[in-house]
Amino acid sequence: MRADQVTGLIPDDGDDRRLLEHVRPSDWRNPTPSERYHLVVVGAGTGGLVSAAIASSLGARVALVERHLMGGDCLNFGCVPSKGVLRAARAWHEARRAAPEFGGPAVAPGPGDFARAMARMRQLRSEIAPVDGAARFRDMGVDVFLGEGRFVASDELAVGNARLRFRKAIVATGGRASAPSLEGLGDVPYLTNETVFSLTELPQRLGVLGGGPIGCELAQAFTRFGAEVHLFQRGHRLLPKDDAEAGAIVARALQREGVRVELEAEVRSVAAADDGIQVSFETAGAVQAQGVDQLLIAAGRRPNVEGLGLEAAGVEYSPRGIEVDSRLRTTNKNIFAIGDVASKLQFTHLADFQARLAVRNALFFGRGKAGDLVVPWCTYTSPEVAHVGHSPASAAEEGHEVETLTIPLEDVDRARLDGSSEGFLRVHLKKGSDRILGGTLVAEHAGDMIGHLSFAITHRLGLSKFSETMFPYPTQAEIFRKAGDQFNRRKLTPAASRFFDLWFRWFR
Prior knowledge:
The protein has 508 residues and is of the alpha/beta class. Helix content is 33%, strand content 23%.
């Protein structure tokens, strides 16, 4: 069975059954619809859950419709399981580093217990699930409908035989893994983010198609578990949406740990073979073949727009998603769309903040604009790559002249002490000022630290403010203070130097 045909979770163990008790209860009975809802939310991923929770807490009559699993991609197939797997892989890697680098006890050779690592992830996922569960939202006062939701009019949604009339609606149906048009792909089993976390046996050889965040994270994780990993990337570098130097650092880290990184590799076809799957790819003008046991497709995502009856509601959409304006309104001004189904940037935290914005705009005549949101993101490789705001190119598109400051991570004592000094902080400033337009941080735990820049950009705090802020020593976050210091040193112009020279000649 192909990955895109899977409708349930596997393996069918106790933790997955406990997960389903919350996100898709087998005994769930849909409520009797209200005469009219203030808000109907379609999709119970992050964006939909936040929308429903906020509106209900403010006293609105809210219906929430989910056709698959409450919690959406993030809980079931994305952020939660992936970070559980990455944590286990990092622990395995650190254990191997202990003896040669830190003088720790040697780790006995052996494959480790991959099944146990995956079981831990599924256990944690099931423990987190109640927060997104159907019962919790019912208890909040939300009418939760499990089933296919389809617009049948500009102000009405059908779920089975029920009809949900509404004043406003929010579509938050998310997205799913996109499989490329590739010869032979329909004839071989393959993994996506929706199925890779169901593995209980470590593939000896794993092929990964795609060098974006998902491909890089899982390629590194599985090589740390002990798999032979081949990563195929069409472009000339990994993480093409991030800083080029950041992508190069990640590529070196993956190669150092054993990942076979094939850049500018055009995969031509895949085919079943006696020992697994044969991947044929072209690189440097030559066609090569590589055998793998499992194939992970990490080559992009597409929005879930099919089967929603958007035409009946007067909502325009395309294969790229639902069209929205700056206030997240669709072409039906009473219907809003948020998250992966309507956004170029596809992050859980962005869906959360778009939900807050959409509820204000829909129910309280707000005029907030999605373009005003300051959006950070992070790829959770080792080291992590985090970014927020503009790149030099996007800043130039908006008419900003840019100055850039770079602080090497090796200048930070804590990073060197931790044995993790490959990386940098790069801050893009509006020329002639300390106004922060954007920045990239490459470091262990960069995702935890990029919030410093997000906060500064959101509240219009200049980079020099970091120079005035005391950070505990030694921490990696000191890199922000160092950036502030470097900016201040730039203000020491020749004229200022001459003044200080005269001052200290007098002040003797």
